[in-house]
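help with these tokens:
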Amino acid sequence: MANLRNLPDAELLALLKDGDQAAFTEIYNRYWKKLFVVAANKINDLEEAEEIVQDIFVALWNRRISLDVTGKFSAYLAVSVKYRVIKALDKRFSQQQYANHSRQTLSLLDDSTQEWLQFEELKGRLGRLVADLPEKCRLVYQLSRDSGYSQKEIAQELGISEKTVEAHMGKALKTLRAGLNSFLAILL
């Protein structure tokens, strides 16, 4: 083992390609701390930095047979750390973006659900107020608002004057407005 400490990286890599575990251990001992410091400084999370470095060494062992390092081995490892840190930061950013999007979507859904419920409540209240109108007022209002009749058509339909239709409509709108205003004051 003592003789492996003195070997240059190129010879350790040759031994590693042959499956020499002692050579792998020497590479690990030689570079682990340096890689960890680089990763920890970039990622600001010691556990994640440790995981990144461990993944590099696992990949190094798994790819030892096909490993082709043309330059300095230390530069190869530095690029590996840089790539994995970028990948980890990108993943973290994507998760943060997803979380932000999810919160915004839920907030919009919550708001729209609340608005829908308030609208349904308001619609129900309007229906009850219309039902409570005197019969002629209710008929005039429903023909106007629900069926889209003009005042002249309502007068012909009900056999009353247009002035009477106008009076019933005024009374209906005044009653409904007062009832809805008090309801909205409570609701909001």
The CA atoms of residues 42 and 125 lie 60 Å apart. The mean pLDDT is 86.
